[in-house]
Amino acid sequence: MGARTAAIAALAGGSLAIASLERTRFRRVRTVVITGASGGIGRASALRLARNGFRVFAGYRKEADAAGLVAEATGELEPLRVDVTDPGQVDAAARRVSEAVAGQGLWGLVNNAGIPIPGPVESLPIDDLRRQLEVNLVGQIAVTQALLPSLRQARGRVLNMTSVGGRVATPFMGAYHASKFGLEAISDSLRRELTPLDVDVCAIEPGSIATAIWDRGREQADGVISEMSPEAGEVYGAELGAALRMATRMGERGLDPDRVARVVERALTARRPRPRYVVGADARAMILAQRVLPTRAFDRLLRRGMGLRRRGSRTYTS
């Protein structure tokens, strides 16, 4: 009986110690790095977290964006110059963060930087494909590698902004989807690698969001269309234009970026964060439809929803 009582007491003591460590962790200064914080989801997340007591390093590339962040922020926000494709800037940013969190470590990293480069796979310039992967995938890995020592120290967490585009692929966005599917895979691998170290990795998967990213994508697509060969323009030009008009309409009707920022905050503060957070009814509907429908049926549904022609048809639907 005495041995059993001692064992129970030891277990209870261990549980209390773990609970004490958790309380201590949640009392520490919560420092978060957000890449791509100049606008959209990144900006909304940086401002929300700073307003709610986090110390935020907000990644930017242009000085005007840094000044705007500081002017609008309430709370502790420091602009952090970091182009995720520039190794020198990534290293310098990691050194600055490491100095700032010395002794406590980094609470969270939000890999949000990203661009869309649309175009049909057949005529997409290979240099554009490389740039898409470099910004949306390779750059995110580079930042994560640079900051993981600080994240391990704090038993922090990594949030990768993958989007529903990392689960469902649409026509004329093959390069973008390749980068986001890749980031989903990296998220899964990294989460499983870091499990013994108590560092969580979450994928944030928004649907349509009202941000300027798709305006930039449309500008990029205009360049792609203008550089197409006459044959490619005849084959794909009208459908690419229809797909871009649909993307613009969806963006105009999209959720406010602060809806995603709220999910980012939840994932950073939950004691047991989920591996994936789907944001938006449209994202949930697309993922569900792809899961339950036969592949060809989902292909038809997706193309019809985008106003694209049927298989084997040369009739264009505007």
Question: Can you walk through the features of this model?
Answer:
- The protein has a 7-stranded parallel beta sheet with strand order 3-2-1-4-5-6-7, sandwiched between helices.
- Strand 5, helix 6 (174-194) and strand 6 (200-206) form a beta-alpha-beta unit.
- Mean pLDDT is 88; it is low at 14-26.
- It has helices spanning 2-27, 40-51, 63-72, 87-100, 126-154, 174-194, 213-227, 230-252, 257-269, 281-292, 295-305; strands at 31-34, 55-60, 76-81, 108-111, 157-161, 200-206, 276-279.
- It has a domain at 26-211 and 256-280: 3-Layer(aba) Sandwich (Rossmann fold), CATH 3.40.50.
- By secondary structure, it is of the alpha/beta class.
- The chain is built from 11 helices and 7 strands.
- It is 58% helix and 11% strand.
Report the biggest beta sheet as strand number plus sense, adding barrel if it closes.
7 strands, parallel
Enumerate how many helices there are, as a single number: 11
Task: Choose one word for the global shape.
Answer: globular
Kindly state the number of beta strands. Answer: 7
Determine the fraction of residues in helical runs and give it as a percent range: 55-70%
CATH homology superfamily of the domain at 26-211 and 256-280 = NAD(P)-binding Rossmann-like Domain
What percent of residues are in strands? Answer: 5-15%
Which CATH C-level class of the domain at 26-211 and 256-280 is it? Alpha Beta
CATH topology of the domain at 26-211 and 256-280: Rossmann fold
The CATH architecture of the domain at 26-211 and 256-280 comes to 3-Layer(aba) Sandwich
The averaged pLDDT comes out at: 88
